[in-house]
Design a protein that fits this description.
The chain has about 170 residues and is mainly alpha-helical. The chain has a single domain, classed as Winged helix-like DNA-binding domain superfamily/Winged helix DNA-binding domain (Arc Repressor Mutant, subunit A), CATH 1.10.10. Helices cover about 55% and strands about 10% of the residues. The chain has a two-stranded antiparallel sheet with strand order 1-2. A two-stranded antiparallel sheet has the order 3-4. A hairpin with a 2-residue loop joins β3 and β4. The relative contact order is 0.09.
Length: about 170
């Protein structure tokens, strides 16, 4: 196992120019830290799957797979979760159908709606991806300390409640 390049720790032009971005320094950067962590895991996942002989998977395809594993199966719901159009998600899903990873089937509760499901090939890929997550989690624990990773995972697994909403008055500087 090799440890790839260090992920970026600077941002330019987001809140201030060229400042170190860590959640410890400033809670405003928590979203950026979460995003960097996501990129770290996704890149490691892709590297692991390629080492296992799987073809490259795009980030949107990876996100579709994550949604399926989370139980989100309607393309319109996946599109909403990912913040993309239904047309864009259908293009990604059709690519994945062509690769044999997923299939579109009729929704049992509404025959006018299609849902995605893993094919046997997709299920095998999901199992390999799950093993990759174990390997990546162990490596992160080695790098940052098991208790740090465990505390972060516990905090992120808590119920965060519904997303916040704001009025224009709430959002004034």
């Amino acid at each position: 196992m090799t440890t790839g390049r260090k992920h970026p720790t600077k941002t330019s032009g987001f809140w201030e120019a060229d400042i170190a971005v860590t959640a410890d320094d400033d809670i405003r950067h928590l979203l950026l830290s979460l995003l960097q962590g996501f990129y770290w895991f996704d890149e490691g996942l892709q590297n692991y799957l390629q080492a296992r002989g799987w073809p490259s998977v795009t980030r949107p395809q990876s996100m579709v797979m994550a949604n399926i594993v989370l139980g989100v199966r309607r393309p319109s719901d996946i599109a909403r979760n990912m913040g993309v159009s239904r047309q864009a998600i259908h293009a990604t899903i059709n690519q994945m159908v062509g690769l044999g990873m997923i299939a579109l089937t009729d929704d049992a509760s509404n025959r006018r709606v299609k849902v995605v499901q893993l094919t046997p090939l997709g299920e095998t890929m999901r199992r390999d991806a799950q093993q990759a997550m174990i390997v990546l989690g162990e490596e992160l624990s080695r790098r940052l300390g098991r208790s740090t990773v465990t505390r972060a995972a516990q905090a992120l697994n808590e119920d965060w409640g519904p997303p916040m909403t704001f009025t224009p008055d709430d959002a004034k500087g």
